[in-house]
Amino acid sequence: MAIANTVVLLYFIIFSVPVRVLAASQQQLRFDGKGEFRILQVSDMHYADGKSTPCEDVLPQQFPTCSDLNTTAFVHRMILAEKPHLIVFTGDNIFGFDATDAETSMNAAFAPAISSNIPWAAVLGNHDQESTLSREDVMKHIVAMKHTLSQLNPPEAHFIDGFGNYNLEVLGIENSSFVNKSVLNLYFLDSGDYSTVPSIPGYGWIKLSQQLWFQQTSMKLRRSYMNQPEAQKASAPGLRSYMNQPEAQKASAPGLVYFHIPLPEYASFDSSNFTGVKQEGISSASVNSGFFTTMVEAGNVKAVFTGHDHLNDFCGELTGIQLCYGGGFGYHAYGKAGWARRARVVVASLEKMKKGGWGAIKSIKTWKRIDDDHLTAIDGQVLWSKSSADVDNSVGLGMLK
User: Fold this and answer.
1) pTM, whole model, 2 decimals?
2) H/E element holding 40?
3) What is the pLDDT of residues 170-184, one digit of tens each?
4) Domain 2-400: what homologous superfamily?
5) For 310, which of 121, 288, 319, 328 could close a Cys bridge (C-beta 3.0–4.6 Å)?
């Protein structure tokens, strides 16, 4: 609660310009005609120099022919299999120590996303800046690449820690009553690399300035969701009817949050209360900056997605928020021989209204695919639903898709 109070008090010190809510004409993300929005999470590619970069922790028979190109092939296969509307790279996109030239490595690492013509977004991990570019310059290079929606930092923030703090809005279906309204909000943050405080060892964390920005952005988006856009007032009686319902008056568009280093709260789970596997410790910062509490207080975050710990791929629910790992993706990253690399898919689905048309988000589901001959889908689960009583969280993959 102390952090929340500080957020309110200090907002006007750091932010003197109102949070910008983008107009529909500036948006590039939208639910499809089936009422779905599909996100592919790619975490820890650890890309270096391509074909000359060897794989780590693979079976002996794989070593002679395994390289960064296996990572590239896996990204291509996942795009073809899932046909995502957005690809999200959650840090350690390149492995700086082994990347001869950071720009060349990034160009190769993100090439599958660029060639697919699918919008993509990225955040930084703790290894991206360890080559020939600073952390800021790495993010600047990413922002300048084709088809990316990544941003260096929010323009309304005069000061904010890190590089790559931004949000994206996902609008409703064309020709629907939600055509000009964001029904899914995506938040991206720079969780840092390593502590810059001499007395605090270990990894970085999400700082107060970033939490201030997140809280104010979340508040603005909630207000925007509750107010009908002018263009819809005369033409969307279905939306007016929906927004007058009691549940809508208390609602806000669900939010999903992406960054690299897991929060200390990821250590709250054991094998009895998550879906997936936990094969290593939680490598969070050694201090708790309170960002989990900030998200809980915001009231609209349904799930958080990180990377960093390659051998963990679980999702567990804590105080109404699902804390999820993407699972190790890259072949030049540490892994476990015989344990396949993997990627996470998240699908948000809209509610089909009884009188036709589409409503707000009904459910958010997830599964992973492993890099085997069939891109086998595993660990399907419902992360959030409009009415949890109507959803069996043990639902199988056959019902999820």
Assistant:
1) 0.88
2) strand 36-42
3) 999 988 888 889 999
4) Metallo-dependent phosphatases (3.60.21.10)
5) 328
